[in-house]
Amino acid sequence: MKTKLLVSSRFSFPQLFKDDFGFVVAFPEPIIKTSIEGEETISLVGYDFPADGQGKRHLGSLFRAIVFHMGAHVRSSNFEDYEDWKKAKDPRLTKFVISLIEDVKANAYISSQNPDKLVDLAFANALALRRTRRIDRLVNPATRTMMGLLLRVNTGLIQVKSTNEHAIIARLAPFLDQFKEKAVQSSADDNANLKDEKLRIADEIYRAIEKVGPITKVPFLPHTEELEASYIPSRSFWVNLDVALEESLKECLRFLGGDNSPSEDTEHTWKKTAEAEAVQVFETWRRQTDREEKILAKYENLLATTRFKSVEFPEQDYSEFLRAKSRCKSEAHRLMESLLVVRNAVDEDPRKLYGVLDLQEVIQVVASKSPRLDVFMLDENVGKSYSWIVLLDASESMKCLRDFALELFLMLADAANELVLDSTSWALYAFNDRFLVIKDPKERYNVRVKSRIGGIDFSGLTYMPDALSVAGQVVKAKSEHLRLIIIISDGWPYGYQDINAALSGILNTLQKGNIVVVGVGAKSRRMGFFFKPNCAVYTLRDLNKKFSTLYAEASRVVAES
Predict the structure, then answer these.
(1) 272 and 255, same structural domain?
(2) Last residue of a domain, one of 273, 305, 337
(3) Residue 222 lies in a domain
(4) What residues contact residue 23 under an 8 Å CB cut-off, 6+ apart?
(5) Distance CA 164, CA 146 (A)
(6) Per-residue pLDDT tens for 227-283?
(7) 189-221 residue pLDDT tens
(8) Is there a single domain that holds both residue 319 and residue 434?
C-alpha cells in the first residue's frame, strides 16, 4: 500500500521517486528485437543478450539485480535527510551526490540482511564495469570524476587514470568505505540515524566535484535509478560471453562482501537452476505478451468503424487498485448483497401445482399439516443467464473525479465477478479517444486485470458513442437472457461534430437489439439526458441504492419477456 511497483515499457532505465503514499519504483520491460536474418535478441537497460539459455539467464540475473537494488532503497534510504543541505546548491550535482551516498547504504543493507542476493548485484556491476571502462575518453573532468566514483562505490575499482580525477576519487574512497561499514552495522537497527554522517560525506563529495568544473551530465549505472536523460557513457553493450567466468565478477562480489569461492559443483548447479528458471519466466512472459497482442488484434477489427485512435491495455498498477479497493470495500460488499437478493428473487421458480408428486415434499407437508399444494416435481430448473459489460469514461473531464470513478468501476467489477458465474460473459473497458481493454471476456478476473484498473489514465476526449458501439458488438454475440451495458461517466460526450446525435443513434440501435444500457452519472445528472435507465450517484452508497433498483427492473422485464 505504501510502495508502488510498476513494470513499464515507457522507461528505458529504473525509476525511483515518491508520491503522496511513499516510494514509486518503475522497472523497465525487456524488449525483443529481431534482425533482418531473423535472429532474436533481448534488450534490457541498454544490454543486448542472445535469445539462448545463457542469454536468458543473464537477463534474469540483471533484472533481479535491478529489483534488489531498488528494493534496498525502499527499505533503507531516507532522501528527506538532505532537504536542508541541498538548498542553494547545484540541483544536478546534489542529485548525484545524494544518489551516490544512498547507493552505498543500499549495498550495505543487502550485504548485511540478504547476502544471497549479492551474486546478481555483482553480476550487474561487472556488466557496468565492462560497459563504461573507457572513462578517460570523456571530455568533461566533472563527468569523469562522477563516473569514476560510481564505479568505485559499486565495484571497488578506480577506473580513471587521469591524475587529477584519480587523486580525487582515491581521497574520497576512504570516507565512503567508512560510511559503508557504519551502514552495515546499523542496517539491522530501524532506529539508527546516520544523517549527520551522510551530510558530512555529502559536503566532501560536493565540494570536490564542484572544484573540478561545470556539471554537464549526471551519470548513473544502467541497473540503478535513472538520474538524468538516460545518460550512460556507453549507449549499448552486446553480452555474448559467460560473465560468471570473468575475474571482474569475482572482484565485484568480493568488494560487496559476498562469497566469491563457491565449489565447482555448486556453481554448476546454480547455473543450471538459474537458467531453467530464467527460461521458464521468459517464456511465460512472452506467451502472455503474445496472448495480449491477439486480444488487441481482435479489437482492431471492431474499431474499424469508430473514431478511436488506438486500442490498448492500460499500464498495470496493482498498488492503486488496492488503495481504491480499501476505500470502497464495505460498499462493494453491500452492493453485491443487494444484487444477489435481486437475482435470487427473479430467478426463483415457483413449484408447480400439478403433475408428478414429489414424495419428500408430500411427507413434509403432511407431517407439518401445512395447507401447501406446491408438492409436484418441476420438469426442469430454469435459471436466468446474464451478460455484463462495464464501461468507464476515462477522459480529461473525469480527471477531477478519478478516485471516485475508479471506486464505482471497481464496485461494479466485483459485482459482475460475483453475479455472472461464467467469466466469459462479462468484460470491463475504459475509453477516452482511445479504447482501453481492462478485462476481455476470455480473461479471468485476476491480479493482472485488477492491476489494469489501477493503471487507468484519465486524459483525452470523450468518444462515448464509439465506446458503446464497440461494447454493443461484443455483447450482441452473447445469448444470455439479460445483456447489460453499464457506463460510468459525467455525461459530457465530446470530441467531434454531432457527437450527441451519434450517441442517440447508437442507443436506439442497442435498444432494438434488446441490449439494456444503464447510465451511471458520476456526481452528475447529465446521464439522464441520454440514457433512459440512469442514476446520478454522489456517494458510493448511492450506487448501492439506485443501481440495485435499476438492475431489479431490468431483470424483471427480461424475466417477463
Answers:
(1) no
(2) 305
(3) yes
(4) 2, 3, 4, 16, 17, 73, 74
(5) 13
(6) 987 676 666 788 877 776 678 888 999 999 876 565 565 566 667 888 899 999 999
(7) 766 788 999 999 999 999 999 999 899 889 999
(8) yes
